């Protein structure tokens, strides 16, 4: 049975109260359920990509990009999803899903073609074909701050041309972050439950303050404050930047904190690890049509 609930722990409740949106958050939270409705299942089966968030074996959080032909992600029951192919071998989450236990997992399916997105959080376990996900929270988000793109090319994932690992941003990586109009962020709550979310804006909305620190403004959203609430309880976070024209990805792991000032919020992220995979994804997207909601 799909039972709506408001999955707010004390971290999210504290941020909602501080910003003055408790009533709005309570209303929006009623849309969150455990069941995958037919419209959500149909949406998933059309997607050529899925972003996930989880902790690696050392407890570091990462956000990763999974890709495949439409149908590689599909609902197999009212609360279960199969992800064909699993996590690529080069990815920092490749060994994050041992066979002897279920691992907390956050996912977000985002379609730049239609500016639609849905989030599905729960636990995952490996299967011979990839991953099996048990849903605990399923909900859609509004199209705010989503850039529209057309898909020009797609195929099966391939091994990356090169993988570079480090503990700080290189000059080229800093320029890529500054040019980004979209990124994804993985966080966990006080109970270890994982979440994957999206952040968008015009290029330059993400600042590089040093080789080990980036920051961005927290724009007004759906009033849930799931990401900021998680960070208030557990500072670990993982960021994913995608080069939409080449398929390259840049993953960052570290910690984040939120600075509150009158009428504004800024999230500051400290980098402790980086993984850059060049030309790893098979998807090629057009230049963006920026969201009219972008400041």
Automatic annotation (TrEMBL):
One Pfam family it belongs to: PNPOx_N
InterPro entries per the UniProt record, alphabetical: Pyridox_Oxase_N, Split_barrel_FMN-bd
SUPFAM superfamilies assigned: FMN-binding split barrel (SSF50475)
Domain Pyridoxamine 5'-phosphate oxidase N-terminal: 169-259
Source taxon at top rank: Bacteria
Protein name: Pyridoxamine 5'-phosphate oxidase
Species for this entry: Streptomyces fradiae ATCC 10745 = DSM 40063
